[in-house]
Amino acid sequence: MALTREQLAQRVARELQDGYYVNLGIGIPTLVANYVPEGIEVMLQSENGLLGMGPFPTEDEIDADMINAGKQTVTAAKGASIFSSAESFAMIRGGHVDLTVLGAFEVDVSGNIASWMIPGKLIKGMGGAMDLVAGADNIIVTMTHASKHGESKLLTKCSLPLTGAGCIKKVVTDLAYIEIADNKFWLKERAPGVSVEDIIRLTEGELVVPDVVPEMTF
């Protein structure tokens, strides 16, 4: 019933618009590169210094020197450019990215996001997440709706250290597409076969539910 990682990426890809410069975070967001809708052109940016990421490579296309921020091998699209991470972050901090897609541990009704550390656990570093959420107005978070223990990740108030405050407006989970406004979650779509009741049960923060919630189609 819940969306797969690939379906999550497909749903996020529908938010892409022709001419966008898009940063894809580590994890599920990187899969969006495989689902860019036909008929539009976007430039996918990786914070390690690649503008113009293509789909993941086939076995005969693999180049160990061509990687994204998550150290996965990628391809370069026509017109791609390669530069230093300093220039990449200048692009991010300068507000030149039209859309940022990243994962999260928690999101709350105020649009706060916690995505970089869990106290007491191994921390790899914050990466570019803080720069990305500060430098972009259009951000989509993609994540599972609840933890593996069944605890909601859509909260009244984030409990983990924040990556950014008041910056998230759209969330695509494995159960639903939700928008954030007026300190509430607004349910817009549900995953195929997922009931509204299940989404309500697994959403801690205040959730506004319309009379009809359409199912996503793939």
Can you summarize this structure?
The protein is 14% helix and 25% strand. With 218 residues, it is of the alpha/beta class.
Please give a structural write-up.
With 218 residues, this protein is an alpha/beta fold. The protein has a domain at 3-43 and 97-206: Glutaconate Coenzyme A-transferase (3-Layer(aba) Sandwich). The chain contains four helices and 13 strands. It has helices at residues 5-13, 85-93, 129-135, 196-201; strands at residues 21-24, 43-46, 50-53, 76-82, 99-102, 106-108, 113-114, 139-143, 154-155, 170-173, 176-181, 184-190, 207-208. The protein has a ten-stranded mixed β-sheet with strand order 4-3-2-1-5-8-10-11-12-13, with helices on both faces. Strands 7-6-9 form a three-stranded mixed β-sheet, with no helix packed on it. Strand 11 (176-181) and strand 12 form a beta hairpin. The longest helix is centred in the N-terminal third of the chain and has 9 residues, at 5-13. The chain is globular. GO terms for molecular function: CoA-transferase activity. Belongs to the 3-oxoacid CoA-transferase subunit B family. InterPro entries: 3-oxoacid_CoA-transf_B (IPR012791), CoA_trans_fam_I (IPR004165), CoA_transf_AS (IPR004164), NagB/RpiA_transferase-like (IPR037171).
